[in-house]
Amino acid sequence: MTEHSTGAPGGRTGGGRGSGGRGGGAARSGGARKRPAGRKRAAPPGESGGGEVVGGQRHRGDLDEDTALTLLADGELEIEGRLVVASNATLYCVVSLDGVEATCVYKPVAGERPLWDFPVGTLSKREVAAFAVSKAAGWDVVPPTVFRDGPFGPGMCQLWIDCDPDLDLIELARRADHDGLRDMAVFDAVVNNADRKIGHLLPTTGGHLYGCDHGVTFAEEYKLRTVLWQWRGDPLPDRATEALRRLLAALDDEPLATELSERLAPDEVDATRHRIELLLKHRVHPYPPEGWPAVPWPPV
User: Fold this and answer.
1) Is 54 helix (H, G, I), strand (E, B) or coil?
2) Residue 206: Cβ within 10 Å count
3) How far, in Å, CA of 12 to CA of 20, rounded?
4) pLDDT in tens, 44-83
């Protein structure tokens, strides 16, 4: 991995690919069927509302992160459909445990399409590693995500996020005054996200911004491809440097060190540390890669 005089990590990006999961509008609605009375379906952490399913409609209930992770890891998965716009097998499921249920996305390793620039069968693990990094830094830009066994073998399981239907995602992606969007841009630089499309932005009705589809991340070579270049070369805000310091310290401690060592190759963990160190050294948002398209295609 090289370092440009601009202060950004440098190198080439990977080749073009389609959406690795919930692309475009596919992430915006659940389409769940009516559930038996009395069963509870929970909402993402921080969302509020009811909880009981009535007449086929979900009334959201609170679900803290620890509960969500336990539910995703240990609950029973029931497949309700497949997101056909995804290039990898992406299954829409209900996960239930002890009377509580939530909707989620399950991506089995067996359904991953081979990529020329990423090791076969590693995309699901990279999504889990992305969640671990987001959590350790305090960004909270990735929904609760676990690696578990499922109906089609081991894979990634991530809490489903219902997007705010009143927001224009294209307009959102262009904003330069959105703190959550800027945090996501720093997160993408850390995990070396090669596929930040507009359709991978998940803004909730509560105002929080999540992102999805982090399978093509953590490569050693500089592969940052994103629609969020509006801050390129700008100084990092103080909250970003604070988050990066937390993250750098966490790389040497449990549970992040163990999580990344289980999901990534040792050289990929080292490259992640180096990217964090470069960001802290220069304290600017990275620049696009030289001599290679810096925006994923399609961008939406």
Assistant:
1) strand
2) 13
3) 20
4) 554 433 333 322 223 234 689 999 999 999 999 999 999 9
